[in-house]
Every structure is written in structure tokens, then in C-alpha cells.
């Protein structure tokens, strides 16, 4: 059985990623308005799936008063 694995898997040399130069001008100024956040939370569809942060729409809507201060 070991011989069959040798045909499928080969030992390769270490991989080194080439240097990359990032041309980034930085973040621009971000302005967040309390009223806009409140409106977004109010209109949030709780039936949609969670985002990449893992927080459900239902939880955000339930906590909207605390979040929106």
C-alpha cells in the first residue's frame, strides 16, 4: 500500500512566496452617523444568514437599542 501512495504523492521542495509590493494609499476617513446605524438596524432582515463575524441579524436587531446608544 505504501508504494501506491508514492505514485500519488511526491515530496516537494519548500515553497517560498515571492516578495510582493503593496501599493496602498491607506484608509480614507470613515464617518459613521448614529442615525444611519439605527435605520440600518431597524430595517435588518433577521431571516438572512449570519455575516463573516458570526453575529445573527436577530441578535443585532434585539440589541439595537444598546448598540445605538
Protein described:
By secondary structure, this protein is an all-alpha fold. It has one domain (about 1-69). Helices cover about 40% and strands about 0% of the residues. The chain has helices at about 1-10, 35-40, 55-60, 65-69. The mean pLDDT is about 75.
Shape descriptor reads elongated
Using the CA coordinates, give the radius of gyration.
Answer: 24 Å
Number of strands: 0
Count of separate structural domains? 1
Secondary-structure class: mainly alpha
- Helical content stands at 25-40%
Helix and strand pattern: HHHH
Helix count, per DSSP?
4
Mean pLDDT equals 77
Distance from N terminus to C terminus (CA atoms, Å) equals 65 Å
Low-confidence stretches: none
- The proportion of strand residues reads under 5%
Largest sheet: none
List the helices and strands and how they pair.
Elements: H1 2-8, H2 34-42, H3 57-62, H4 64-68
